[in-house]
Amino acid sequence: MNKLLTVIVDDHPIVIEGLKTLLKNEDNLEIVGGFSNGAQLLSYLNRNPVDLILLDVTLPDIGGMELCQMIKAQFSATTILILSNHTERSIIMQTIQNGASGYLLKNSSLDELRQCIAEAVKGNICYSKEVVEIISRPTKNQLRNTPQLTRREKQILSLLAQGKTSQNIAQEFFLSPLTVDTHRRNLIQKFEVKNVAELIAAAHQQQLL
Amino acid sequence: MNKLLTVIVDDHPIVIEGLKTLLKNEDNLEIVGGFSNGAQLLSYLNRNPVDLILLDVTLPDIGGMELCQMIKAQFSATTILILSNHTERSIIMQTIQNGASGYLLKNSSLDELRQCIAEAVKGNICYSKEVVEIISRPTKNQLRNTPQLTRREKQILSLLAQGKTSQNIAQEFFLSPLTVDTHRRNLIQKFEVKNVAELIAAAHQQQLL
DNA sequence: TTTTTTCTACTGGTTTTTAGGTATTTTCTA
DNA sequence: TAGAAAATACCTAAAAACCAGTAGAAAAAA
Q1: E strand map for B10-156
Q2: For the sheet containing A29-35, what is the strand order?
Q3: What does the pLDDT look like over A96-139, one tens digit per residue?
């Protein structure tokens, strides 16, 4: 079996060097490059085959998220492992949504790194222990103030998210526009937001849309 | 080591029976119950300890998503594995966001099921092969019509999602409200939506917020 | 340095939302 | 079956959003 052609992308040269040293004795992979920004990485990918990318999310020129998407769009066979210090749930979830095969914190052990690499190239998705902890603990915000919505309110919320006006909605449900208005106002009250725009954002954050 | 106390929740009794039969020879787990709706499950959980739940997302009384959240809020030690036929990316991602430890399609092999259970109780998150495939392929929709936003537009989009009015935004950026209005209109055009509410929804779907 | 894009700002008019309420009927549910 | 919750509907008036344009200055790209 060929060695995994691996590149490291991080804006701290020290991290790149550290990883190179840590991984140089692994007999199943070979570090073929280290880059400190997204542009360098992309230009390398265009000229050379790469199996695995260890990617930091904070880069000087481009967000890791976008980069992730771009790489996956062009080089879908390449596996991406995120290596980051961000402990926010939403960021972790986003990287996976954008095609990453795993997420590790930078203080992960070499063992964890090894294991995740192994899983990732097998096609699985893998997180380090702490990351799983973050993912599985429900955001306090999320569960605490999730308003209890009635059936009608849910229906109307969903149509509002489709850009419908009160009149449109009223027609769909054979209601008076004034009624829809009332529901809309109750929604805004329940979510404690200022207007429909913020309402949609809040509803989205709480997975209600 | 004690056997894993496992319950199965599915609205098709046949599936419950099938799983019971398949898993009855596993020596590390014991099926202690099978339920066909969410209410039954919750009432059982309130009286009995359960380590693992094999959960279908489509139930007659309550959505699997909500159920997942509720279980995790009350019984955080219980591991949830989703067993479903839905192949939509968004649904899969949501279950994980709601605290599930994995996702399997119902046509998964017994081996995959075994492996996922093992991973899940170890605290990892695990998907069957097909599911990983679904997750890693970028939604065509998502990449295709993601509009290219300018710096200002991004800033304004984000404030709109916070329920700010054009005047508020104008003040924050020392601009004329009319200018903000223009940007807002350009955003609505670029996203091909009808108003700000739909704009926020669209932006959210494309991970721009 | 020219060209293009982005940012800025305006006019004028229409539609919709938002904020303050009130009130009746229907539907759960205890 | 009584009481609570939900759904329905209305009024008024101000505020904000939306539509359809135009156009100069600044910044970035070619």
Answers
A1: 29-35, 52-55, 79-84, 102-105, 126-127
A2: A29-35, A4-9, A52-55, A79-84, A102-105, A126-127
A3: 777 788 898 888 888 888 888 887 887 777 888 788 777 766 55
DSSP A35-46: ESSHHHHHHHHH
Give the residue numbers in A contacting B (CB under 8 Å), as ranges: 65, 69, 72-73, 76, 93-94, 96-99, 101, 123-127, 129, 132-133, 135-138, 143, 160-165, 193-201, 204, 207, 209
Contact A123 B129 (CB under 8 A): yes
E runs forming strands in chain A: 4-9, 29-35, 52-55, 79-84, 102-105, 126-127
Label residue A51 exposed, middle or buried (CB < 10 Å: 0-12, 13-18, 19+): middle
Cα angle value B68/B72/B75 (rounded, 5°): 125
Closest CA to B84 of B55, B116, B46, B45: B55
* Amino acid sitting at position B142: Q
The pTM assigned to this predicted structure is: 0.68
Q: What's the full length of chain A, in residues?
A: 209
**Nucleic strand D within 7 A of Cβ A159:** no
Q: CA dist A32 to A48, A141, A142, B38, Å? A: 10, 43, 42, 52
Which token pair is A180?
A: 């829809």
What tens digit of pLDDT does each residue of A34-71 get? 988 888 888 888 888 999 999 988 887 777 777 887 78
Q: Name the residue among B180, B207, B204 with its Cα closest to residue B193.
A: B204
